[in-house]
Design goal:
- The chain has nine helices and two strands; from the N terminus they run H-H-H-H-H-H-H-H-E-E-H.
- The chain is mainly alpha-helical.
- The longest helix has 23 residues.
């Protein structure tokens, strides 16, 4: 997916950040307990979000897919400093969350990276930063800003889908068929398996 970024300076920007942070990014958990809270969870979650965002964005016109991909890849980069390797909140994480830290990382690389000057615009830089700042979607969910662009909405929903799919899968896994559970995050959940041998004609007629 990095290779699908058509703007070479943006592609180099992402590659340089990931190369510098690779000792943490590829083995860090994505959270302490909510989702993907195991070694390598951050990488798996990021890959899922990138695939979701690419799939969603490809359905619409006038989407800057380069910005979508860069934003999706870097949306949680700050978690490498918010948590330690075990997923516990770090000293820095107690003062700044991954949204603040991730925004700092992209600005530091743009203005002070080894390449010193990237030939993509500050407008693109601020757009990427906005995606990081808004990817939780709502102020009450921890976003300093709500999504203000199509690309930011796409990354937010791509992240929201993967987070909730992880949570629902984990909570449904121990249940037997037709058992239900009240989820802290998703409301009522039920594990359902449809028996396609049953007669669904009446249901189909109703629909």
């Amino acid at each position: 997916f990095i290779n699908r970024i058509t703007n070479e300076p943006l592609r180099n920007f992402v590659n340089n950040i990931l190369e510098k942070k690779s000792d943490r990014f590829y083995k860090w958990p994505a959270a302490h307990g909510v989702h993907h809270n195991y070694p390598g969870g951050l990488l798996q979650h990021t890959a899922n979000v990138v695939k979701n965002a690419y799939s969603i964005g490809s359905n619409y016109n006038d989407i800057d897919m380069d910005i979508v991909l860069v934003g999706a890849i870097l949306h949680d980069i700050g978690k490498i400093y918010e948590y330690d390797e075990k997923g516990d909140i770090s000293g820095e994480g107690k003062l700044f969350d991954h949204i603040n830290i991730g925004t700092r990382i992209v600005f530091e690389e743009y203005y002070h990276g080894e390449d010193s000057v990237y030939s993509f615009s500050e407008r693109d830089l601020y757009h990427i930063a906005h995606i990081i700042l808004s990817h939780h979607g709502k102020l009450e969910w921890g976003s300093p800003r709500t999504p203000a662009t199509q690309e930011a909405f796409i990354v937010h929903y791509a992240d929201y889908i993967d987070t909730n799919m992880f949570i629902t899968h984990r909570e449904l896994l121990p249940l037997d068929i037709d058992q239900n559970v009240k989820s802290k995050y998703s409301g009522n959940l039920m594990r359902v398996k449809f028996d396609m041998n049953q007669d669904y004609d009446k249901t189909i007629d109703f629909i």
